[in-house]
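Database export, one record per block. Field names are fixed; values are copied verbatim from the stored entry.
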Amino acid sequence: MNPLNHVAIIMDGNGRWGIRHYNSRKKGHKAGLKTVETVIKVSIEKKIPYLTLFAFSTENWKRPKTEIDALFKLLESFLKKKIKEFNKNQIKLKIIGEKKFPKKLNKLLNDSEKKTNSNSKLQINLALNYGSKKEIINAIKLLNKKNMNINEKNISKSLYTKNIPDPDLLIRTGNTKRLSNFLLWQISYSEIFFSNKLWPDFNSNDFINILKKYQRIKRKFGKIL
């Protein structure tokens, strides 16, 4: 069986789901949080050590301010409700991306990381204000500043995901087949699955079925088996 240490997910389709069912993108984002809870639960059951969720990209700032504000309020509410549960279930939270949010949200994100830092069952990497191209550029700038050699090993150590294994599996929902500037360096050898379902419709069976399909893949990494 293929080892499965890290699953990354592009949670696409919340807004479209909300418009389709309630004529409200906000309700779609709220419904998507239930799927987040489902995926976290399955990840713990399957003993997956790392789960990375793409929640807000650097490009998402182009959206209407009302939607952005609603997203941040949902995130604040979710974290306030879930931190005790995270600690109970030994879930560690790490934010990847640039923390350039309102002071209140930045403080909550920092506090959430600190409060869960010693947990070890599952690490959730929440990609917020994240863009892979910017991450790579920042890594190279950091190496130049430190007068370090620019090579694969040093770049990997300078990314937001340093000390985290690269994803074995990337899943994108929403019937869209693109990477959207997400973990471009880290997924160079990840297996990629696209789901036609919008994120709020993605359920535990969908997730488990993809995990099973992943296990059946012969992973060669350029070799001949």
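Remark 1: The longest helix spans residues 65-88.
Remark 2: The chain has one domain: 6-216.
End of record.
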